[in-house]
Design a protein that fits this description.
The chain has 254 residues and is an alpha/beta fold. It is built from 10 helices and 10 strands. It has a 6-stranded mixed sheet with strand order 6-7-8-3-9-10, sandwiched between helices. Bound molecules: adenosine-5'-triphosphate (ATP).
């Protein structure tokens, strides 16, 4: 059995008395690719905020690699192995994909020395490996601003991977992507899951079906249900609070 990478016990986060997370319990093993779904306001973003240290638990604890994160700053937690990908890509648009990845590989060595100096052979090999992983071998030297939205997302994922995080948190990676880009993003995350533990928050159920092994459903700040995608889709409570509403939205939009 794999070791636990993340263990969350009795976690409550209150904002002025309102419980965004309410006595939440959660755990995942090393090497898992876990998808988290749930209606708007369920607490998904707050859940990621607590893992990265942006928000501290009001009650309860988050243990990552066996260590309670309470006393650690956001920066320390990032260095300890938690990488986070936000919804909007945060890449340097005026630099090329190769330069963006070089910066990420050298983040600890200082930005200016990287821009001015030559990268070492090892770093170049790492960068070319990353370009291959994220499917940008054909476009290493164009301005990142000219990449499609999906390609920018992959570039940012590559920049996170360059930091070799143990746990990768990915917030709605396929919002606004084409069907083809969505599928390629799924393939990328599945391939990364061989070396990293990954949590993905997503609303796109087609995408969830593509990538997921185990799905956690959040509702009103707690775990409502956990299971395979088939189990989740057939659970009456999940249908009532989330999937049923999604169906209605699709019909209304049609
Ligand atoms: N800083 C804050 N102060 C007060 N309330 C907050 C704060 N952050 C989040 N909340 C509230 O906590 C609840 C959970 O919010 P959260 O953003 O975590 O949900 P979510 O599941 O990510 O929703 P969405 O899918 O819409 O992004 C919401 O009701 C939100 O209004």
């Amino acid at each position: 059995m794999n070791a636990r990478i993340l263990e969350i016990e009795d976690l409550t986060v209150s904002f002025d008395g309102f419980k965004a997370l309410n006595n939440l319990n959660f755990s995942m093993d090393e090497g898992e690719l876990r998808v988290i779904i749930g209606p708007n306001g369920a607490g998904k973003t707050t859940f990621l905020d607590v893992i990265t240290g942006k928000v501290k638990p009001t009650i309860g604890q988050v243990r990552f690699k066996g260590r309670n994160l309470r006393s650690m700053s956001e920066h320390q937690i990032a260095r300890f192995g938690v990488g986070r990908k936000f919804q909007t890509p945060r890449v340097y648009l005026n630099l090329t994909p190769r330069e963006n990845l070089e910066l990420a590989c050298n983040r600890n060595k200082g930005v200016f020395s990287t821009l001015l100096g030559r990268s070492s052979v090892t770093e170049r090999r790492t960068v070319s490996g990353l370009l291959e992983t994220i499917g940008l071998v054909a476009k290493p030297d164009i301005q990142a601003g000219l990449l499609s939205h999906g390609e920018k997302q992959w570039l940012e994922i590559g920049m996170l991977v360059a930091q070799a995080p143990d746990l990768l948190l990915v917030d709605e990676p396929v919002a606004g992507l084409t069907d083809e880009e969505t599928e390629q993003t799924g393939e990328l995350l599945i391939s990364l899951a061989q070396e990293h533990s990954i949590i993905v928050i997503e609303h796109d159920m087609e995408f969830v079906r593509q990538i997921s092994r185990k799905v956690t459903v959040l509702h009103e700040g707690s775990v409502l249900y956990e299971g395979t995608i088939e189990e989740v889709q057939n659970d009456p409570r999940v249908i009532e609070v989330y999937l049923g509403q999604q169906q209605e939205e699709v019909h209304e939009a049609a």
